Amino acid sequence: xxxxxxxxxxxxxxxxxxxxxxxIGCPRCGLRRIDPVPSPAALSDYYSRLxxxxxxxxxxxPESYRQQSNHVAGLLARWAPGAxxxxxxxxxxxxxxxxxxxxxxxxxxxxxxxxxSQLARDRGLDVVTGEFTADGDRFDVILMRHVxxxxxxxxxxxxxxxxxxxxxxxxxxxxxxxxxxxxRLLGRHWSWYIPPAHIWYLTPDxxxxxxxxxGFVPRRIMTRQGDAYHPCVELAAGIVRRVRRAPAxxxxxxxxxxxxxxxxxxxxxxxxxxxxxxxxxxxxAVSAAGLGDELWLVARKDP
Length: 303
What we know:
Layout: E1 13-18, E2 21-25, E3 32-35, H1 40-50, H2 62-79, E4 85-89, H3 95-102, E5 106-111, H4 114-122, E6 127-129, E7 139-145, H5 154-164, E8 165-176, H6 181-186, E9 200-201, H7 204-213, E10 216-224, H8 231-244, H9 266-278, H10 280-288, E11 294-301
Parallel strand pairs: 4-5, 4-7, 5-6, 7-8
Antiparallel strand pairs: 1-2, 2-3, 3-9, 8-11, 10-11
């Protein structure tokens, strides 16, 4: 793996270290990645253990997927109004695809995890187990929601997407925002700093540059709270982790332990939801300033 920035080609320098990895970053576009990058074999072993839990449908929050479907459907209505064939890369159990299918879209998914992809097929969805490649299928829209940060080569994934889109097709990408307020203030104590699952930490500049290099024309870049905690909740949790020197996520086990286990309990979930509702104007302001924890890109395939 080269020490040149994967987006703009500049030299990389050390930023911080934690959880067994150094993080090196680009001073020009802000792109960062963990160092060393895990081997394909190491990542395969990691995901085979971690994603076994994802196949448990009892862990799924239906309301969360409805909200995600509404958000994606709104983006499709605005930026790809004539689209019919939608592909989701990294579709997990296909919950978002199922919602889009109910809205009338012809859907297909790709998922590395054998367990979760089978869960999607059991519900009648066309989901391929394996890595997404330009295999001949063509789509009007490709959705990559929280995929690029996991892949060893994000540029190559975007190039595959460009090759698989129809002329003028639309790309939707969501990643953790490496330039968010919480990331800047918390560093290795940020909830989305979770190596080796998250290899890359993309910023608006670096994501735009990668998309352009892959043959896309960026149309909109925005940030939102998304799947993240409310910024105030995240900052409070990060401070607790810093004080306790606790991991940002529990170990891969059926029963999480430690500070994050609170979020698995009904009382903790209720407290977080209540705080998020009360503090929603703060989240909206942070997102509008481009500092939200979830970064979205809407791009068009360059004809």
